[in-house]
Amino acid sequence: xxxxxxxxxxxxxxxxxxxxxxxxxxxxxxxxxxxxxxxxxxxxxxxxxxxxxxxxxxxxxxxxxxxxxxxxxxxxxxxx
Amino acid sequence: xxxxxxxxxxxxxxxxxxxxxxxxxxxxxxxxxxxxxxxxxxxxxxxxxxxxxxxxxxxxxxxxxxxxxxxxxxxxxxxxxxxxxxxxxxxxxxxxxxxxxxxxxxxxxxxxxxxxxxxxxxxxxxxxxxxxxxxxxxxxxxxxxxxxxxxxxxxxxxxxxxxxxxxxxxxxxxxxxxxxx
Lengths: 80, 181
What we know:
The structure holds 2 protein chains of 2 kinds.
Chain A: H1 4-10, H2 26-37, H3 39-45, E1 51-54, E2 57-59, E3 71-74
Antiparallel strand pairs in A: 1-2, 1-3
Helix pairs in contact in A: 2-3
Chain B: E1 2-7, H1 13-20, H2 22-27, H3 34-37, E2 47-54, E3 60-67, H4 71-86, E4 89-97, E5 99-101, E6 106-114, H5 117-134, E7 137-143, E8 148-150, H6 155-162, H7 164-168
Parallel strand pairs in B: 1-4
Antiparallel strand pairs in B: 2-6, 3-5, 3-7, 4-6, 7-8
Helix pairs in contact in B: 4-5, 5-6
């Protein structure tokens, strides 16, 4: 899932990974998405301030991913 | 009793305040369970502090808020829980608008009930400070020329949230920058 500027740059609320694509960690998924989408989206996704939440909790880059995890990338929050 | 509401409808502040007020619940206590409907310890509630945040109108035509349904509510409850670990609260209510808003509209309301004002003031302020840096909400503003742009996160918000680390004896709130690979 993608939110805010990232959602606009990839032009999708969410995507499903193709069969056989099984990144082991958040860092691997980030690299995979950058390689496959490129451009400004990739630049933004690599920004140190773009966070990743797995199953609605913010996690570190070495967090292990599992089948059917809900994974979200988003820029710094600006509510309130 | 805590309540977290994410809504695209205008916020009715008076109704929210009543959820925390001791009198209202004392009058209806015979027919309703206090633990479900009102502050946990109604007779002990001696202070309610609330914060109301509005859309400023300077230089913008409108604002639009995007959020991560499900995670937004969990994150707000986590902000409340963090305050509850430090201060004894009888209830907390947080309401946040999403969707399109116009200048002058209420965007967020935070209210807490406690025995004494000191806890209520501090808890309310800390919940609001945590919300600013942890809850997955994103603002877009429409400039007077009609163009929309995403609002950038402010370092001053992170600084305000970090101030509570010592008071709470916990790591600073907010999402720590990930390490560059």
